[in-house]
Amino acid sequence: MKEWWLQVGLLGVPLLAVYLHIPSPQLSPALRSWKSSGSFFTYKDLNVFYRDSSGAVGSSDVVVLLHGFPTSSYDWSKIWEGLTQRFHRVIALDFLGFGFSDKPRPHGYSIFEQATIVEGLLRHLGLRHQRINLLSHDYGDTVAQELLH
Known about the structure:
38% of the residues lie in helices and 19% in strands. The chain is an alpha/beta fold. The protein has a single domain (27-148), classed as 3-Layer(aba) Sandwich (Rossmann fold), CATH 3.40.50.1820. It is elongated and about 75 Å long.
C-alpha cells in the first residue's frame, strides 16, 4: 500500500475533470429577474453588479445595502419593495467575488477593497457627497465599519 497516493490520483483526476466540465445550473426565474433589473459598473477592469431603485416620493434618504457571507445582494429581495416605500433610493451591490460580480482568481480579496468598491459605486452614481444610510449584516457589517472609519 505504498502507492496509496497513486490510487487517489488515478481516481481523483477523472473526477476533477468531470466536475470541471459540468455546466453551471440555470438561474431561477427570481434570480433572472433580479439580475435583469440591475446594472454593472467597472472597478479596476472588473464588473461589479448593483441594483438601484427609486422609491418614496418626498424622501431624499438613500440606503445602501451590504450583504453577508457567502451570499449576494439577493439577500435583500424580500424586503426590497418595503425599503423603496421608505427611502428615495435603495442601492445594493454584489461584493467582488459574490453573486453576479466578477470572481477573479487568483485575487487578494479584502474588506478594505470591498469598502473601496462601495465608495466607487457611490461616486459612479453621483452620490459621493450625499448623506447615506447603511443597512448591513454579517460580512457587510465589517465592510460598513470600514466605510464608517
